[in-house]
Amino acid sequence: MADATEVRRGTFNADPHWETFRIAVLVGLAYYAGARIGLALTFSPMPLSVLWPPNALLLGALVVTPRRRWWAVFAGALPAHLFAELPHGVPTPLVLCWFASNASEALIGALVFRRFADNCELRTLRSAVAFCCAAAVAALLSSFLDAAFVQLVGWGTTDFATLWRIRVSSNLLATLTVVPVLVTWSTAELDVRRHVTPAQLMEIVCLVAGLFATSIVVFDSGVVDSGIPPTLLYLPVPFLVWAALRFGPALSSLAYAIVVFLVIWGAAHGRGPFLLAAVQNDPLPIQLFLSSVAVLLLLLAAAVVERREAERMLRGSEELFSTAFRQGPDAIAITRARDGGIVEANKRWLELLGYPSNAQSLATLGEHLSPASRDRVRSLKSEPGSAQETEVVLTDRQGGVHVALLVIAPVQLMGETCHITILRDITRQRQAEKDAYDQRRQLTHLTRVASLSDFSSTIAHELNQPLTAILSNAQAALRLFAHEPLNVAEIRAILVEIAESDKRAGLLIHHLRLLMKKGDEEFVQVDLNQLVRDVLDFVRSEFLVRTVELKTSYAPDLPQVRGDRVQLQQLLLNLVCNACEAMDAQTHGKVMEVSTSHEADGTVQVTVSDTGPGIPADRMDRVFEPFFTTKQSGLGMGLAICRRIATAHGGSLTVLSRPGEGATFQLALPQVLPGRRLEATAHFPADTTSTATAS
């Protein structure tokens, strides 16, 4: 709170030593002036003033000063206290004791006030109540010290209880009078100091003049004596209320200080309605009257300012909501909770749903929603809490279909429960996402086809083997049929070999069709061990042609993963291809290792390693970037698509390189938890699924 005050006053821009010196000097001058005023307002022969400003000035200074500079406040006040008290014959020990009690009161009051107030400007009810409580607590506690010091030194003849009571009422009145003036005029952004129009200035002059004149007549003239009716004591109150209502705590505290000074001055000089109190050396009636007025005035001014600020914030909020409602890019409507009727809708709502700008009758939102969206919105409204969000499909009056993001928030409108309904049209966004997805799927498919073209000779060789075997066995069977008697056992064996060769050719063609197929993703449970075997079996001739030695290691009881079988085959096929091509320049020592494993973190891993030259360190960070390739004829999309496939399956694809010794790619996929039910997004035909499983 003090730091914010310091920023507002600009002290952070000043030299810290000069600022500390300035605080000490200002506090010293104010303390000395306050002590002189306090001595002038003392009812002789009592050693205590009716109102003692120095302690209140100390308290106010502590409130508006950062804590790290409180020592400067006390350092400036001590010499001023000595100069003010010692020339008047007050014993030196008592002078020092009084400073200690004044300092203790200021310290207690400042700590309590800053602890419980929400600001130090007395512009809220909480801060006003906290200040009144802090003033009372500080006066009650510090007065024990003050009365004890007077008794200890033996200054005066008043007993301890009377001294304590007078000290409490005197210090409380001083705090309620001086601190509000000091705090509000030094820290607050005052209404009376900013944007004051000539009319307001004239009003302030009239207010102060009327208050001053009324207070002099009532409290400081011979016109009214102590026998006046009690009601005449409150003649200045309307002016105080006027100041509080119109100008807040700043002017009301200053006006109240004027009244306090005139009341005590008049009584001290034998004038006004409190003359009897002065004669009897009993200032309590004066203090009780003024303190009660001070508390009421502080609370009234704070309540008025707080309400005014709340009204200003409410108007600002209403203007902000109105601007957002009418000019915002989203379609917004206020609907009744009981029937969904439209209370008010903005222009964007009318445009989205196809209504003319001057439409008087609007259909409910539910009439524009699809059945599935209508059920979703109904369940959304039934859920308690704040704003709820969902995606809906709606149809405008012309039949156009829109995809929108719907947000519903409850609100009270004139005592009735309503909803603020916001629609953000995301039709273009969803269409763009669909187009991007289709393009990615097309690119993935083309990359798969391109990678298969590299295996054209291998595929031809793989197909030629079973076809040649079928032809040879069929010719042998024909020759056996020409001999008598028929060798049924040998013919049966030949037919079995023909069936096996045909099955191998069929499986090869089936795998080609799967890899060439273009369709939606199908996420099912996949056995990675079997999938790796299928891929390696599919390209086994490639290893023979390239003279690559294949080493495999399959983890037993490997958990299954959830994924699209074709995409995972494409990923592994690409990794195997890259490993083979990385070792093309070698004449010997071409070894590829493919292994599966189950890791402790719950993932299933497939590792593909080669003994090629590895990946240079300056290219490691770019191997998965689109269009980055180390091949002369490569597109640079293979590994980028492989990583995208791994990410889409909730896994990861990483690479480790050993320069001169080869590279290792690791595919990690989350395992399927036992008992978890998977729902495929699409379905293979029955014969395709069974064949793939058999392979």
From TrEMBL:
UniProt-listed InterPro entries: HATPase_C_sf (IPR036890), HATPase_dom (IPR003594), His_kinase_dom (IPR005467), HisK_dim/P_dom (IPR003661), HisK_dim/P_sf (IPR036097), MASE1 (IPR007895), PAS (IPR000014), PAS-like_dom_sf (IPR035965)
Location(s) in or outside the cell: Cell membrane
- Class of enzymatic activity (EC top level): transferase
Q: Which GO terms describe its cellular component?
A: plasma membrane
Q: Which CDD domains match?
A: HisKA, PAS
Q: Which reaction does it catalyse?
A: ATP + protein L-histidine = ADP + protein N-phospho-L-histidine
Q: Which UniProt keywords apply?
A: ATP-binding, Cell membrane, Kinase, Membrane, Nucleotide-binding, Phosphoprotein, Transferase, Transmembrane, Transmembrane helix, Two-component regulatory system
Annotated membrane-spanning segments are 21-43, 93-113, 125-150, 170-188, 200-219, 231-247, 254-272, 284-305
What's the main place this protein lives? membrane
Residue limits of the Histidine kinase domain?
Answer: 458-673
Q: Which GO terms describe its molecular function?
A: ATP binding; identical protein binding; phosphorelay sensor kinase activity
Membrane topology per the entry is: Multi-pass membrane protein
- The EC number of this protein is 2.7.13.3
PANTHER family, alphabetized: SENSOR HISTIDINE KINASE, TWO-COMPONENT SENSOR PPRA
Q: Which NCBIfam families does the record associate with it?
A: sensory_box
Name of the featured protein: histidine kinase
